[in-house]
């Protein structure tokens, strides 16, 4: 029997689960276990229980690549390029058939997932919009990053910033004004200066504390709907407060609450606009009896139709 949380009208989708055990974007290992943790936490059952058709494509592997030097200033650059090649191709293919859900894996996987989704959007003549739910902007380039960790660069890459030598050329950069960041609270000086000079919509936790999380999200969704856009959502575990989601190597206090996370995801579902999704930076090695994996599965289910009570909402369709 379905629970009361699942007794709502859900538009059936074909969801492709794409395991991306990417662990090359930073030096702290563990995110490669993320995809299987989502499966163990019941993601397939949660989505199929909502009436969606779920096809698990298993875990991908990076394209063939040269081994990276251990002491290279950019950590695992070749491996990350190889993952970008693989993921962009899979994103392009699955977007044509349903809603891809990329199971990470660190956030460098979004270099490939968003680039591939952007290519698909261009092929069907629709603009792509991106909602970035994260404590960090990830707007670095390989040159601006002090750490040399490429999980801090995907937004810089898919918006067309220079400095990504050796990476696949970005054929369809996402316009800066089509990106909305929510939950920011850890931004270093080079990123802040670059972001302030950009047209990216950004909402840090002070903004959310003062004005709430629903308003900025609703306004951005209005823009997506008005443009008949496709919408990619990238949900980083560290968007959430580490007290409720400890399984991440980049913990930053003061993040979104469970209630705020579910509100965002329910609003995404109500809009009917989300066409692809990243679930990233889950490091099961740091989790507490799977609590973070279960919470992320619950949030994914909310974004795809689970709620306590159905309520009349404005549809963008």
Strands, count: 8
What is the name of the CATH class?
Alpha Beta
Q: Walk across the major sheet and give the strand order.
A: 2-1-3-8-7-4-5-6
Low-confidence stretches: 1-8
Main sheet summary: 8 strands, parallel
Q: What global shape is seen?
A: globular
CATH superfamily, please? Ureohydrolase domain
Description:
With 317 residues, the protein is an alpha/beta fold. The protein has a single domain, classed as 3-Layer(aba) Sandwich (Arginase, Chain A). Helices cover 34% and strands 16% of the residues. The protein has helices spanning 34-40, 43-49, 77-95, 109-123, 154-158, 189-196, 205-211, 214-226, 258-271, 291-303; strands at 14-20, 53-59, 99-104, 128-133, 179-184, 201-204, 230-236, 274-280. The chain has an 8-stranded parallel sheet with strand order 2-1-3-8-7-4-5-6, sandwiched between helices. The two termini are 30 Å apart.
Quick structural summary:
The chain has helices at 34-40, 43-49, 77-95, 109-123, 154-158, 189-196, 205-211, 214-226, 258-271, 291-303, and strands at residues 14-20, 53-59, 99-104, 128-133, 179-184, 201-204, 230-236, 274-280.
In terms of topology, how is this protein built?
Layout: E1 14-20, H1 34-40, H2 43-49, E2 53-59, H3 77-95, E3 99-104, H4 109-123, E4 128-133, H5 154-158, E5 179-184, H6 189-196, E6 201-204, H7 205-211, H8 214-226, E7 230-236, H9 258-271, E8 274-280, H10 291-303
Parallel strand pairs: 1-2, 1-3, 3-8, 4-5, 4-7, 5-6, 7-8
Helix pairs in contact: 3-4, 8-9, 9-10
């Amino acid at each position: 029997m379905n629970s009361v949380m699942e007794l709502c009208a859900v538009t059936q989708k074909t969801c492709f689960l794409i395991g991306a055990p990417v662990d090359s974007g930073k030096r702290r290992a563990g995110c490669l276990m993320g995809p299987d943790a989502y499966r163990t936490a019941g993601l397939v059952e949660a989505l199929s229980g909502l009436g969606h058709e779920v096809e698990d494509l298993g875990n991908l592997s990076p394209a063939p690549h040269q081994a990276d030097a251990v002491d290279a200033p950019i950590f695992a650059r070749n491996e990350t390029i190889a993952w970008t090649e693989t993921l962009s191709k899979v994103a392009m293919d699955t977007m044509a058939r349903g809603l891809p859900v990329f199971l990470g894996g660190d956030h460098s996987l979004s270099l490939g997932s968003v680039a591939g989704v952007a290519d698909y959007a261009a092929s069907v003549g629709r603009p792509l919009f991106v909602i970035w739910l994260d404590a960090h902007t990830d707007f670095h380039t390989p040159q601006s990053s002090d750490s040399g960790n490429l999980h801090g660069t995907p937004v810089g890459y898919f918006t067309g910033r220079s400095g990504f030598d050796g990476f696949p050329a970005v054929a369809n950069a996402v316009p800066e004004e089509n990106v909305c960041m929510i939950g920011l609270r850890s931004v270093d000086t080079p990123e802040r200066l670059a972001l302030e000079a950009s047209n990216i919509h950004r909402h840090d936790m002070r903004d959310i504390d003062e004005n709430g999380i629903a308003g900025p999200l609703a306004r951005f969704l209005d823009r997506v709907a008005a443009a008949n856009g496709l919408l990619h959502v990238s949900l980083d575990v560290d968007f959430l407060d580490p007290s409720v989601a400890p399984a991440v190597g980049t913990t930053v206090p003061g993040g979104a609450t469970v209630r705020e996370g579910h509100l965002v995801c329910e609003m995404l579902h109500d809009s009917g606009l989300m066409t692809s999704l990243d679930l990233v930076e889950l490091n099961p090695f740091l989790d507490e009896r799977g609590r973070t994996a279960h919470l992320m599965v619950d949030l994914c289910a909310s974004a795809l139709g689970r709620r306590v009570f159905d309520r009349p909402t404005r549809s963008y369709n």
